[in-house]
Amino acid sequence: MLLSQHLVKRFIDEAVQHGDYEYEDAYYIQNQLLTYLNAEGVTTTEEESNYGQLDANEIIQLWITQAIDNELLEDSLYRKEITEANILDLITPKPSQINKIFWEKYQNDHSAATDYFYDISKRNHYVKEDAIAKNINYTVPTEYGELEITINLSKPEKDAKQIAREKAQKTTNYPKCALCMENEGFEGSVTQAARRNHRIIRLQLGQHRWGFQYSPYAYFKEHSIVLSERHEPMNINRETFVNLLDFIDQFPHYFIGSNADIPIVGGSILSHNHYQAGRYTFPMDLAAQQEAFQLTPYPAVTSYTLQWPMSVIRLKSKDKAELIEAATYVMEQWNSYSDIQADIKAVSEDGQRHHTVTPIARYRAQQYEVDIVLRDNQTSEQYPEGIYHPHRDVQHIKQENIGLIEVMGTAILPGRLKKELQDVKRYLLGDYAIDIGSHKTWADQMLKQYNFTNSNVDSIVEQEVGKKFTRVLEDAGVFKQTDEGKQAFHRFTSKL
Fold this sequence. Notes:
Number of strands: 15
Radius of gyration: 25 Å
Distance between the termini: 71 Å
Structural class: alpha+beta
Order of helices and strands: EHHEHHHHHEEHEEEHEEEEEHEEHEHHHH
Strand order of the largest sheet: 5-6-7-9-8-13-14-12-11-10
Shape: globular
C-alpha cells in the first residue's frame, strides 16, 4: 500500500502546526506513518481534489480502512484504536508542553486554559465527537423540571473475536487501572485502551497531586475526569469536600462531583479515587428549594432540601472553610443516622456500612454551593439488588447503578434500547407477533392508556421513557416525595 503524498503532506502540516515538530522533521513523521500503517511508501499520482478537505482524524480513518483492505492491519477494534492513537500522537504536544501552555494561559484566563486543552483533546480524537454525536438525546418535562434522556450509542461494541482474545490475554498490573496516570502515552492492548494520544493536566487539590483530563465518550459539555495521582479506593470524607472546593476555586466555570464510594450506589470504578467535572448545568442544578433549615453550628451556611426525586441537601456560603466543615458535618451525621420508623439503618447487624453521599460542588451567584445527595445501599428479600436502586419494574429501561450523572437528572441508558424501543413502537402499532421481551408489561400498560398512531407513537414512547427514568430516581431516593417521606426527611434535618 502507498500513501497519498498529498494527504501525507497535509498530515505533516497538522503535526507541525499542533504537535512538537518542525518542517525539518517531515521525513521522520512520514516514516512514522509508514511504520504504523505497514505501508510501503508514498505515491504522487492522486489529485488533491480526490480527497476534499479532510481533517487529521478523517485522513487517518481513510488510511486505516485502506490498510485493512490491503490486509496490512488486523480488522479488529483494538488494533484500529491503537493505530489511530499512535498516529494522532504525532499531532499532540508532549505532556510537559501541554501542561506548560495550559498554566501560562491560566494566568490570564481560566476558561482559555480549559478551552486550549479541550481543543487539543477534540483535534487528536481523544474526545470522540463523531461517536458522541450518535447518542440519542432529548428532554422530558416532569414535576421536578426537565429531565434529560441519553441513549448511549457512542462507545463501540466489541466483536466476538476481540472478546475471545481478551479472555486469552495474559493479565498485567500495568497500568493498574483505566484511570491511573501511567495510562498517559500507553499504547494499549487487547484488554487495555489505546492511550498514546492521551494527556493529563497536573494540579494540586488539598495536600495531594491530581490529574485533570477529558472523557473520551462525553455525556455533557466538557465532561472531565479528575483523578488522584495515587491508586487508592474511592473514599468520601472531609478531604473530598476540600478537594472539590479547591477545584472550584481554580476552575469556577466548572462544576465537580463524586460518585458514591460503596457498592450498589457507587460508581463504575471504585478502585481509584476520582471525580467528574465539566461546564454544564444539570436539571438538578435548577431544582426548587423545598424546606429550609438552619445548621446551628454553622451560621454562615444557608441550608435547605430540594424538590427532587432523590434526597438532596444544598449548602451555600461565601465562607469556603465553614462550608467544608458544614458539608463534612452533614455527611457524618447521615453516615451514622438510623430511623426505625422509616426503616433506615446506618449499619447492618454484621457491621457493614450502609450510608454514604454523592457530593457535588459549584460556584454560582458569588457563592460556593455543595449538594449532598443521601445514599443507602441496603438490600432486602423484596429488593435484592438494593432497596434504593431501580426496582424490577423499571429495570427493563435501567438496571445499572445510579451514578453521579443520573443523580443530577441526566439518564445514561444502555444502547440496546435503540433497537428495543423501535420494536416496542411496532408492537404498540399492532405488530403483536414481535417479541419485545422485558418491555411487554410496560407496552401493554401503554396500550390501555393511549391510542397509538404513526404520528404520535414516537413522542409518547419518549415521554414514557422519561417517566420510567423519573421512577428510577425516585427508587434511588432515600426519603420519598410523599408526605411520609418528607416527614422522615424533616426528622433527619431537624437533628442537624
